[in-house]
UniProtKB/TrEMBL annotation:
InterPro entries: NAD(P)-bd_dom_sf (IPR036291), Sc_DH/Rdtase_CS (IPR020904), SDR_fam (IPR002347). Gene3D superfamilies: NAD(P)-binding Rossmann-like Domain. CDD domains: SDR_c. Keywords: Oxidoreductase. The lineage of its organism: Bacteria, Bacillati, Actinomycetota, Actinomycetes, Micromonosporales. It comes from Plantactinospora endophytica. Pfam families: adh_short_C2. The keyword Iron-sulfur does not apply. This is 3-oxoacyl-ACP reductase. Belongs to the short-chain dehydrogenases/reductases (SDR) family.
Length: 248
């Protein structure tokens, strides 16, 4: 397979200003795609886009539906279309269910589920116009391996996994392929830092992972690249457990 397997393709990566999202943007760019980076942190987003061979940063708070049109229109105006949507933006909160607030619920579910749903809805005409595209949803192993204190986050990601399957069924006949990645604890993923701080990684975590290491943002980006590329053309409705064998 060519190192430029995404040449001529246009990708949009949400939550692309740092961590996993920025790494995904770089890897897709290295594979030849033009990439729109979307996020709230303007300085970081501008820096990430500047690193790419053909990159664009669009600042946006995706929890506001009115931002979706601007993100998509900016992408189409710059690159002429959209072929790949990577739904990576996410929010997290920690606390037992009886401690959770409605404000926390609305913030996490509003970004992880609602914003992803309606951004994808708005992107579908662009993705389908060329006879098919790719959606990659970045979820979490928390959808299948629960832990105390993450009820809002895990349930919102479980909803995202269901959307992966549903969209694959709804739009597969039109050529769209929809898949997901469920990372385990990501060593260089900021959302995993509280978990890493709460446990002794060597003593408590690594013995439970057959691969005996944490995931990296590069691992997530590699899986995303595969799902976005031609090698995954017959794969749809599948979420890859990128966890070193933990959930096995």
């Amino acid at each position: 397979m060519s190192d430029r397997e995404l040449s001529g393709r246009v990708a949009l990566v949400t939550g692309g200003t740092g961590g996993i999202g920025a790494t995904i943007a770089r890897v897709l760019s290295e594979a030849g795609a033009a990439v729109t980076v979307v996020g709230r942190r303007a300085e970081l987003g501008t820096a990430v886009a500047a690193e790419l061979a053909d990159g664009l940063f669009v600042p946006a708070d995706l929890s506001r539906r009115e931002s979706h049109h601007e993100v998509l229109q900016s992408t189409v105006d710059r690159f002429g279309g959209l072929d790949i949507l990577v739904n990576n933006a996410a929010a997290h909160t920690a606390g037992l269910t009886h401690e959770s607030t409605e404000e926390e619920f609305d913030r996490v579910v509003g970004l992880n589920y609602k914003a992803t749903y309606f951004l994808t809805q708005a992107a579908l005409p662009h993705l389908l116009s060329g006879g098919g595209g790719r959606i990659v949803n970045i979820s979490s192993i928390g959808t299948t391996r629960s832990w105390a204190g993450a009820s809002i986050y895990n349930s919102s990601k479980a909803a995202l996994d269901n959307l992966t399957r549903t969209w694959a069924v709804e739009y597969g006949p039109q050529g769209l392929r929809v898949n997901g990645v469920n990372p385990g604890i990501v060593a260089d993923g900021p959302m995993s830092y509280p978990v890493q701080a709460a446990f002794d990684i060597e003593e408590d975590i690594l013995p439970t992972i057959p691969a005996r290491r944490l995931a990296t943002a590069a691992d997530v980006a590699a899986a995303t690249l595969f799902l976005a590329g031609p090698g995954a053309d017959y794969l749809s409705g599948v979420t890859i457990a990128l966890d070193g064998g933990l959930t096995a």
